[in-house]
Amino acid sequence: MTIRIGIAGITGRMGVLLAEEVLAAGATLAGGCRRPGSSAGAPSGASLFPDVAALANAADVVVDFTNAATAQPTAAALAATGTPWVLGTSGLSAADEAAVEQAAAQIPVVYASNFSAGVNLVLALSERLGAALPAGSYDAEIIEMHHRQKVDAPSGTAIGMGRAVAKGRGVRLEDVMESGRHGHTGARKTGGIGFAALRGGQVVGEHTLIFASGTEHIALTHRAFDRRAFASGAIRAALWVSGKKPGLYSMMDVLGMA
Q1: Catalytic residue at 146?
Q2: Catalytic, out of 146, 189, 217, 245
Q3: Which position among 51, 65, 91, 219 has the lowest Cβ density within 10 Å, counted as fewest Cβ atoms?
Q4: Which among 150, 167, 182, 244 is annotated as catalytic?
Q5: Does pLDDT of 144 surpass 70?
């Protein structure tokens, strides 16, 4: 029996790709739900459900690349049905992430800022570089660019890179993050991790981590040219998480790198 995978937001740009990747992986597309008020049709003749709770009852795993505003109700719905959750939505607040963690006490959740295998290798390298390059000598800066429709900044992937560097340095990102510089800011703080967000055109995603010292610069860059890299990784995670114990997992777990 193949795994039944449901797609939250199946009529959106990522939802369509996810549905295609489910079928390419040989799994069963259980169907999906769409955002309230949408009249878009489901891809591949897939079944449409009125809400995520109904979808969860028909699926073995739900993949969710929707909107941060849906994170808390979706967490409650999937915890209630006992359905594993693959979550790739960015821009979650502290309260949203707390709801995800609460759900993970009852169901297995794979939550990642990015499901690309390449990005996750970059995150692993970011942590190692953060540990190897002293914060007092090497300033860490993260530059990201996305399409003009993206609503959150910095991107979830950029935040993930910052968290990886901070982990390598043994600090909390929230304590050293510098974002949105403007005006007379004064000298850069030693040990800070800086962020710059660019928006324009239809850029799928570009992220560069720079370590700058007085004697050298080191740059680590990832460029995504097709959203399918994220979709195929998410379906890989959906196949992996089925049957797992409750807990909060990452793409590193899926790739066997945790």
Answers
A1: yes
A2: 146
A3: 219
A4: 150
A5: yes
